[in-house]
Amino acid sequence: MAYAHGSNEVANGIGPMAAVIQILVTREVSASSPITPFLLLIGSFGMVAGLATYGYKVMATLGHKITELTPTRAYCATVATAFVTVAASGLGLPVSSTHIAVGAVMGVGIARGIGALDLRVVGGIIVSWFITVPVGALLGASIFHLLRAVFSIE
Questions:
Q1: What SS3 state is found at 153?
Q2: 148 in a structural domain
Q3: How many CB atoms lie within 10 A of CB 127?
Q4: Quick check: 10 and 43 in contact, CB under 8 A?
Q5: Euclidean distance between CA atoms 59 and 63, whole angstroms
Q6: Under a CB-based contact definition with an 8 Å cutoff, are residues 40 and 14 in contact?
Q7: Which of 39, 51, 56, 133 is packed most tightly, with the most Cβ within 10 A?
Q8: Which residues of 109-123 are buried (b: 16+ CB within 10 A; e: fewer)?
């Protein structure tokens, strides 16, 4: 699973940073930007910092709030998450391994029957998926317009 996270989440985080650095250095927008070992290192440290500060909340939700996980069930969910994440990364798809993990944990719970899921928790997760995408889009557009106005860039 750590390999899957590295193949996906670090790339999702440093891809935009690589583009910004490329633009700052060359003053041009290009179709691709080099990913240096230094950027990979920064992304890795960012993942560790995120895990250390807020990761425990997500781990608690995945680990016991959605459904009861035994070691066998947790293993099945982890293998499924790793497989789907690595496959998506291999195809160049920027997916969320957390969303995939939630789906895998729900799948393990559903295998025991719908009653094995805490539907209140599952409902909250699904609502959060519908909220975070448009909020992220609005915030991204707002930051772009702010920076464009401040730095007079196109």
A1: coil
A2: no
A3: 10
A4: yes
A5: 6
A6: yes
A7: 39
A8: beeeeeeebbeebbe
Note the pLDDT tens digit of each residue in 21-75.
Answer: 888 888 777 788 888 888 888 888 888 898 899 888 989 999 999 999 999 999 9
CA angle, corner 129, sides to 95 and 39, nearest 5? 40
User: Which sign, positive or negative, has the C-alpha torsion 86, 89, 93, 99?
Assistant: positive
| 69 found inside a domain | yes
Q: How far apart are CA 138 and CA 146, in angstroms?
A: 12
Residue 130 lies in a domain: no
Q: What is the pTM of this model?
A: 0.78
How many folded domains does the chain comprise? 1
Q: How distant, in Å, are the alpha carbons of 7, 9, 21, 48, 95 from that of 92?
A: 10, 12, 21, 23, 9
| Comparison of pLDDT for 138 and 8, the residue scoring more | 138
Measured distance CA(67)–CA(121) in Å, rounded:
9
- Dihedral sign from CA coordinates of 109, 112, 114, 115: negative
Structural domain containing residue 31: 2-117
Answer yes or no: is 98 within a domain.
Answer: yes
DSSP one-letter string for 24-71: HHHSS--S-----HHHHHHHHHHHHHHIIIIIHHHHHIIIIISS---H
